[in-house]
From TrEMBL, chain A:
Coiled-coil intervals, chain numbering: none
InterPro entries: Thiolase-like (IPR016039)
Protein name: Acetyl-CoA acetyltransferase
Transmembrane segments: none
Superkingdom, taxonomy of origin: Bacteria
NCBIfam families xrefs: PRK07937.1
Automatic annotation (TrEMBL), chain C:
EC code(s) of this entry: 2.3.1.9
Signal sequence coordinates: none
Organism: Kutzneria viridogrisea
Classification via CDD domains: SCP-x_thiolase (cd00829)
Top-level division of the source organism's lineage: Bacteria
Alphabetized Gene3D superfamilies for the sequence: 3.40.47.10
InterPro entries (UniProt xref): Thiolase, Thiolase-like, Thiolase_C_2
Thiolase C-terminal domain mapped to chain residues: 247-371
Protein name stated in the entry: Acetyl-CoA C-acetyltransferase
An example molecular function term from Gene Ontology annotations: acetyl-CoA C-acetyltransferase activity
């Protein structure tokens, strides 16, 4: 259908605890681009629009993203943009760009070398700079506040949190015997610090069929943000996710990739989205298996789309988050035909 | 010759600045009242009293101006336990983060609770403000909260209007060089200038690149370059600035080494600044060998060779 | 899908100055937003989405400030995007907001950009020295001065051209109630006698450090019809690598490509005669002639002749930066959106004392990084194709 956009390709760098690469992501991105272009049969000159997501504070340098375009070999000059957000929002910008009719393909990428700094402290700088950030509330301690609210309200248990982390692969009792990192969170409840990169190719209805045997058609993509005041939010649910999902038409979902950096957030999102027992959640392992900052949300979209590409699923939901305690959320619904 | 792979180099990168934040009328009033040991909230469009105060209503986005004094005691709505505090946090012994709803407030404030152990923490527990002995203006004038049964400590207030806060942001990173740059840096440590050629366009890059900027592939074939070249263009830095490492005035010049296809920025000394010219031939002046490390700083500066200037056409495409 | 028409229906900006210590970052943004929304005659329920632009987060020491600003931006419960394309970001913010309307996704979008430079020190943030490197970098001026020298050598421009630009822009700034620097009495001679900071760039040829914000409301045809509007005729963004062998740093290909795409989309074949006024990102005076050439307003090497002949002054063939431009106000992240907003104000006839008489077609231009990111738009008093 005219105006429609599909995900036609996805590639990602290995999710690892630490790379030797630079903070501008070039070493991770070069092979990812090569893989993605080979899979779609495109050359860099065929790409109508490039859009990326990354963070200067992750790298500890102003303009850290500008060196990343070297990985593209951006010559002749390219049509390009960048968001200082998870690259899922770069995908949103690219989706908009294709819908203007100006371009028919876009390559979206995100990268983050989370290991370069002290991530728990760096993320404190996302909080209100006047009354909150001066206390340096670390991201894990703040997540613990949310986890306990749900525990106290009976929305989840520590065992259920451990089960999310275990994914049937690890002994839950053994996990529960381990010490707290930030009571009520244990290490398994927290996404690992991960270096990585991800990239996705989008195409218009006119091009998608020739680039991918079974495109993942985006039937809805929406995002919403909530107030920054943690103490004024209902932290046991995610109104912005619910609103985005409603606007995106999230019905009939078979499989969901949820960007939940903490185990309780996967349960929270599942409840908020009303994903029943039949919906398969995070077959990729989700952010708990690898959380490359500023790429992990885009990777959820890519992972969900790849289940359509392979024929394993017909209608999927991908979710991405930004900010402290799920402050900002994006929902992308895709289907195969 | 293909470059051998060895461990890339890395080194600490400290990024620190004491940010100066102007508070505006709402947050300024809150901070000022804190110095007098009073906590102010602001009433929202839906009647809720927001503590800490917010400048704009989360529902209507309208500016909020109706201040409401609330209590200095309150109730913990949730908490987490920090067994190993991080730099900059309110307490440097194990403590709890908590959302605390002060008496009279409808929203909760994030702060630390000095409770001694997680066993002493509970949702619904009553806490009170512990004021800092040395107020600086701002949220850290609340040193932390403490359980109501803790002995109270007398601290004198120091009333003065607060319009600004200073917010130190100091972070430590590990900066890594790419494998290609690392090879070049190790060359520098031996007094050699090692470039690499892009396998696609054939251009010689110094320093070599993890991705040729025009082709997106790593540079590969090593090319040893002489420590002589030409000044393509330059400026004279006369302005002092925070963090500057070379005393102005100095000449910052793009030096194109003979055989390289890209210039790099370096210092030119050895003649008066006004004698430096585009096209001037220069050579590296190395620091004493015993001070060499894996850095371009091994070359102290470039100095004129006295050779005739290179013709403009020979470097015009490098501007 | 056919591209929808989009138009600027309101603009707003702060009083820019070195230190806006009377407001927080939220208050700074709202000063611009409130003016833009009043100018557009819209209220919060009509705003479908918000786009925030800002240069490096290290300038304010806040990671992704759009998060803590959500309430102040009126974005809570709505879509919020944060754009960052280096110094061109203000322009990109306008273009991304425009695309949200042009795609048919939203009807009315608020674009905001700000910088509160007084929270830290931009020279520091831009000169943080990574390990292993040579500490010769000296902020943006140190970066661009050698390329200015290259331009002078290449074009043969006389030495005083930079001063002509600076004196013109600062005098223009004196007509702009929001400008940071207002210097009605500045002269070419006084600029030429100001201290040399980064030779060949003098003190008076350098942009100030400003706190400030800009906002525009962009709407679709159904909302914009019947209102004062600046119709968006074309947008373009192009990027090239910071450095590469043989890169032309004086006349970057990305800028030329962006301009070519822009003029093509706008149906403009002779920019100098068809464009009535241009707001061009000129942080150092010499960039006026450099960008005049890069944008195709003159032949290569001839841009300075337009400047020297007074053609870029108010009353000339192509007034450039009647607002005073970046040389008069530089809240970095907002500077590009200010160019875009000022272009819109001109074709809406709302530029007050610095209005170019009869302006119908205007250019907004921004660039960033090492002259490698370009964002442009052309706005017109009438719908595209109506000329």
């Amino acid at each position: 259908m005219a105006g429609e956009v599909a995900v036609v390709g996805f590639a990602q760098a290995p999710n690892v605890r630490r790379t030797h690469g630079t903070t501008n992501g070039v070493e991770m991105l070069v092979p990812v681009f090569a893989e993605l272009l080979a899979a779609t049969g495109l050359s860099k000159r065929d790409i109508g629009f490039w859009c990326s997501g990354s963070s200067d504070y992750l790298a500890g340098r102003a303009f850290s993203f500008i060196a990343a375009v070297d990985a593209i070999g951006a010559w002749p000059p390219i049509a390009e943009s960048h968001v200082e957000m998870d690259a899922a929002w770069a995908l949103y910008e690219a989706w908009v760009k294709i819908r203007t009719g100006e371009v028919d393909t876009a390559l979206v990428y995100g990268f983050g070398k989370s290991s370069a700094g002290d991530l728990r402290r760096v993320l404190a700088l996302q909080l209100d700079p006047y009354l909150v950030a001066p206390l340096w509330p670390d991201s894990v301690g703040v997540a613990g506040l949310q986890a306990r609210l749900g525990l106290a309200a009976g929305l989840w248990t520590q065992r259920q949190m451990a089960e999310v982390a275990a994914r049937g692969q690890r002994d839950v009792d053994e996990l529960l015997a381990r010490p707290y990192v930030a009571d009520p969170l244990r290490a398994h409840d927290c996404a690992p610090i991960t270096d990585g990169a991800a990239a996705v190719v989008l195409a218009s209805a006119e091009r998608a069929g020739e680039l991918c045997a079974r495109p993942a058609w985006i039937t809805g993509i929406e995002h919403r943000v909530e107030t920054p005041n943690l103490g004024a939010r209902d932290l046991t649910t995610s109104p912005s996710t619910v609103a985005a999902a409603e606007a995106a038409g999230a019905e009939g979902i078979e499989l969901a990739e949820l960007h939940a950096p903490f185990s309780h957030q996967e349960i929270l999102l599942r409840q908020a989205l009303g994903l029943g027992e039949r919906v398969r959640v995070n077959p990729s392992g989700g952010a708990l298996a690898g959380n490359p900052m500023f790429a992990a949300g885009l990777a959820r979209i890519g992972e969900a789309a790849s289940r359509i590409h392979s024929g394993a699923a017909g209608r999927v939901l991908a979710h991405a988050t930004s900010g402290p305690l799920l402050q900002q959320n994006l929902v992308c619904v895709m289907e195969g035909r | 010759m293909v470059t051998s792979i060895s461990e890339p180099l890395s080194a600490p990168l400290d990024v620190g600045f004491d940010y100066t934040r102007s508070l505006g009328p709402v947050l300024g009033r809150f901070a000022t009242e804190l110095r007098e040991h009073r906590v102010l909230g602001v009433r929202g469009s839906d009647g809720r009293v927001h503590v800490p105060p917010v400048e704009y209503d989360p529902v209507t986005a309208q500016p909020l101006t109706e201040f409401v004094q609330v209590g200095t005691e309150g109730t913990v709505t949730t908490w987490s336990w920090i067994p190993e505090p991080l730099a900059g946090q309110p307490l440097q012994r194990p403590f709890a983060w908590a959302l605390i709803k002060l008496d009279g407030a409808d929203t909760a404030l994030l702060h630390a609770v000095d409770a001694g152990s997680p066993q002493a923490m509970a949702i619904g527990m009553r806490v009170r403000v512990r004021w800092t002995a040395e107020p600086v203006g701002g949220i850290r004038d609340i040193e932390c909260f403490e359980p109501l049964d803790a002995p109270e400590r007398a601290v004198a207030a120091t009333p003065e209007p607060v319009t600004m806060i200073t917010s130190p942001v100091h972070l430590r990173y590990l900066h890594s060089a790419s494998p290609e740059e690392s090879r070049y840096l190790r060359g520098l440590a031996e007094g050699r200038l090692l470039g690499q050629r892009c396998p696609a366009c054939g251009k010689v890059y110094v320093p070599p690149r993890p991705a040729c900027p025009t082709d997106g592939v790593p540079t590969e074939d090593e090319v040893e370059l002489p420590d002589r070249g030409v000044v393509t263009t330059f400026c004279v830095v006369n302005v002092p600035f925070l963090g500057q490492r070379i005393k102005p005035p100095y000449v910052a010049a793009y030096v194109l080494l003979d055989g390289a296809d890209i210039a790099f920025l370096h210092l030119v000394l050895g003649c008066a600044a006004e004698e430096v010219r585009m096209g001037m031939r220069v050579r590296a002046v190395w620091r004493p060998r015993e001070s060499w490390g894996t850095t371009l700083e091994n070359i102290d500066h470039f100095a004129p060779t006295g050779e005739p200037d290179a013709p403009y056409e020979s470097f015009a495409q490098h501007l | 899908m056919a591209k929808q028409l989009a138009a600027v229906i309101g603009t707003g900006q702060t009083h820019h100055t070195a230190k806006r210590q009377d407001v927080s970052m939220a208050g700074l943004c709202r000063e611009a937003i409130d003016r833009a929304m009043a100018d557009a005659g819209v209220d919060w329920p009509e705003i479908d989405a918000v786009v925030l632009g800002k240069a490096p987060d290290l300038f304010e020491g806040v990671m992704m400030p759009e998060l803590f600003l959500a309430d102040a931006l009126g974005a809570t419960g709505k879509p919020l995007l944060r754009v960052h394309t280096a110094g061109s970001v203000g322009g990109s913010t306008g273009n991304v907001a425009a695309s949200l309307v042009q795609s048919g996704v939203h009807r009315t979008v608020l674009a905001v950009a700000f910088e509160k430079q007084s929270e830290s020190n931009a020279m520091w943030a831009l000169s943080i020295l990574p390990p292993f490197s040579m500490p010769v970098g000296a902020g943006a001026g140190g970066y661009f001065a050698p390329h200015v020298r290259s331009y002078i050598r290449r074009s043969g421009a006389p030495e005083h051209i930079g001063a002509v630009v600076a004196a013109k822009d600062r005098r223009n700034g004196a007509r702009n109630p929001y400008a940071h620097l207002k210097q009605p009495d500045i002269t070419v001679e006084s600029v030429r006698s100001s201290p040399m900071l980064w030779d060949p760039i003098r003190y008076d040829e350098t942009c100030p450090s400003s706190d400030g914000a800009a906002a525009v409301v962009i709407a679709d045809e159904s909302v914009a019809s019947g209102r004062p509007a600046a119709w968006i005729h074309a947008t373009a963004m192009r990027t090239e690598p910071t450095t590469f062998a043989g890169r032309d740093q004086v006349n970057p290909q990305a800028g030329r490509d962006a301009a070519a795409a822009l003029w093509r989309e706008a149906g403009i074949t002779d920019p100098l005669s068809e464009v009535d006024v241009a707001e061009i990102y000129v942080p150092f005076s010499w960039f006026e002639p450099m960008w005049l050439e890069n944008l195709g307003f003159s032949e290569l090497g001839q841009g300075w002749k337009l400047t020297e002949a007074g053609e870029t002054a108010l009353g000339g063939r192509l007034p450039v930066n009647p607002s005073g431009g970046v040389l008069s106000s530089n809240p970095i992240g907002a500077s590009g959106l200010l160019r875009f907003a000022e272009a819109a104000m001109q074709v809406m006839g709302r530029a007050g004392e610095h209005q170019v008489d009869g302006a119908r077609i205007a250019l907004g231009h921004a660039y960033g990084g090492g002259s490698q990111y370009f964002s442009l738009w052309v706005v017109g008093a009438e719908r595209p194709g109506a000329r």
